[in-house]
Design goal:
With 335 residues, the chain is α+β, with helices and mostly antiparallel strands. It is built from ten helices and 15 strands. The protein has two domains: 172 residues, Peroxisomal Thiolase, Chain A, domain 1; 151 residues, Thiolase/Chalcone synthase (Peroxisomal Thiolase, Chain A, domain 1, 3-Layer(aba) Sandwich), CATH 3.40.47.10. It binds oxa(dethia)-CoA (UT7). The site of oxa(dethia)-CoA has 18 residues, from α2, α6 and α7. Belongs to the thiolase-like superfamily. FabH family.
C-alpha cells in the first residue's frame, strides 16, 4: 500500500460478457400474456440474454468480462490491488467477489461485493476512485454483474419482460491529476421509497421447541413500474445537472449520455429534460434488456468497441434503481 496524495483516475480497459442463450419478445409472449409490439413500444427491449444451465452463476459472467478487460491491455491479474463486484444476485450471500479473485488469479487483490442494485456500478466506480485518489491502491477492477433471471417471477408480465443477465468490467488506475478522467460525481439515496422496487426476505418460523427463530429465503423481484419510472425521469436529470453545474460544464458540452439501460422511454425523457439530443444517448437495451449493475459497463464497453467515443468527449454516466438510489459520474475521455 503506497501513499500518493490526490491522484487522478484513468480508465485503462473495459470488457463485457453476456450469456449465449437469448429470449426474444415473441418467445416471452408464449410464457406470459404480452406481445412484441407492447414490449417494444413501452420499453424498447427486443430480446434479453439469460444464464441457463446448472451451477452457472454471476461469477461465470463476471470472470469472463474481467478476463476480457485484462486481455485487451495484456495486464497480469497480479497487478490488481482491489476487486469490487457490484451485484444484487450473488451466488453466496457472504460475497462472490472473492471467487472472482481466485478464478482470475488476482492473488494480490482484496475483493468485496457492493450491493446497490442498478446503481451498483456507479457506486462501485466512485468507491474505486476514492481508493485511487487517496493513493491507497493503484489498480482496481470494478465489475457490474447480475443474473436477475434467477429472481424473476416468470408469471409476472410487468417485470419478466424487462430484465436480462450480463456482466461488464472496467480496470481503473491512479494517474497524475492532468490525466484524470473522472471529473466529478453526485450520489443520492431515498430509502422511504424502497418498497417501489425490492427483492425481499421472506420469513418463516423455524420449527424448534426451544429456539424462537425465524428463517427463510428471498421472494421474487417486486416493482411498482409507474413509480420507478416517475422517480427516474424526475430525479436523474436533477442529479446530472447538479454534477455538471459543480464542474461548470454545460449540457451543450455533453457528448454522450450513458444511462442505466432500464427503458428507452426513460432514457429519452431524461435527455429531453436536459435538452440533450437523442442521438447522444448510448442505447443497447434492445439487445439485452435491463441487466441491472451490468448495464452501464456493458454499454460502455460496446461504445468503445464501436469507436463511438473520441478523445476529450464528455460522458455523463447515471445509474438509478432500487434503494431507491441514483447517481451521476462525469467523465472526460482520454484515448
Ligand atoms: O432499474 C430500474 C428498474 N425498473 C424500471 O426501470 C421500470 C420503470 N418502469 C417502466 O419501465 C414501465 O413502468 C413499465 C415498462 C414497467 C410499464 O409500462 P407502463 O407504460 O408504465 O405500463 P403500466 O404499468 O401503466 O401498464 C399499462 C397496461 C396495464 O393494463 P391496464 O391496467 O391499462 O388494462 C398493464 O396491466 O399494460 C398492462 N401491462 C402489460 N401488457 C402487456 C403491463 N405489463 C404488460 C406486458 N404486456 N408485459
Amino acid at each position: 500500500m503506497k501513499s500518493l496524495m490526490m491522484q487522478g483516475t484513468r480508465i485503462l480497459s473495459t470488457g463485457s460478457a453476456v450469456p449465449n442463450s437469448s429470449l426474444n419478445n415473441s418467445q416471452i409472449s408464449e410464457i406470459v400474456e404480452t406481445s412484441d409490439e407492447w414490449i417494444v413500444t413501452r420499453t424498447g427491449i427486443e430480446e434479453r440474454r439469460l444464464l441457463t444451465g446448472m451451477n452457472k452463476s454471476v461469477v461465470d459472467l463476471a470472470v469472463l468480462a474481467a478476463l476480457k478487460a485484462l486481455d485487451k491491455i495484456s495486464m497480469s491479474p497480479s497487478e490488481i490491488d482491489l476487486i469490487i463486484l457490484a451485484t444484487s444476485s450473488p451466488n453466496d450471500l457472504f460475497g462472490s467477489a472473492s471467487q472472482i479473485q481466485s478464478k482470475i488469479k488476482a492473488l494480490n487483490a482484496v475483493a468485496f461485493d457492493l450491493t446497490a442494485a442498478c446503481s451498483g456500478f456507479v457506486l462501485s466506480m466512485v468507491t474505486a476512485s476514492q481508493f485511487l485518489k487517496s493513493g491507497t491502491y493503484r489498480t482496481i477492477l470494478v465489475i457490474g454483474a447480475d443474473v436477475l433471471s434467477k429472481w424473476i417471477d416468470w408469471s409476472d408480465r410487468s417485470t419478466c419482460i424487462l430484465f436480462g443477465d450480463g456482466a461488464g468490467a472496467m480496470i481503473l488506475q491512479s494517474c497524475p491529476q492532468k490525466d484524470n478522467q473522472i471529473l466529478g460525481f453526485q450520489l443520492n439515496t431515498d430509502g422511504s421509497y424502497s418498497n417501489h422496487l425490492s427483492l425481499l426476505y421472506k420469513e418463516q418460523v423455524y420449527p424448534h421447541p426451544v429456539l424462537n427463530l425465524y428463517q427463510g429465503s428471498f421472494k421474487y423481484i417486486s416493482m411498482n413500474g409507474k413509480e420507478v419510472y416517475k422517480f427516474a425521469v424526475s430525479q436523474v436529470p436533477i442529479s446530472i445537472l447538479k454534477c455538471l453545474n459543480s464542474l461548470n460544464i454545460s449540457t451543450h458540452d455533453v457528448n454522450w449520455l450513458l444511462l442505466h439501460q432500464a427503458n428507452e422511454r426513460i432514457l429519452k425523457a431524461i435527455a429531453d429534460k436536459l435538452c440533450i439530443s437523442n442521438n447522444k444517448i448510448i442505447v443497447n437495451l434492445n439487445k439485452y434488456g435491463n441487466t441491472s449493475a451490468a448495464s452501464i459497463p456493458i454499454a460502455f464497453d460496446e461504445a468503445l468497441t464501436e469507436n463511438k467515443i473520441s478523445n476529450n468527449d464528455i460522458i455523463v454516466i447515471s445509474g438509478f434503481g432500487a434503494g431507491l438510489t441514483w447517481g451521476t459520474i462525469i467523465i472526460k475521455w482520454k484515448s
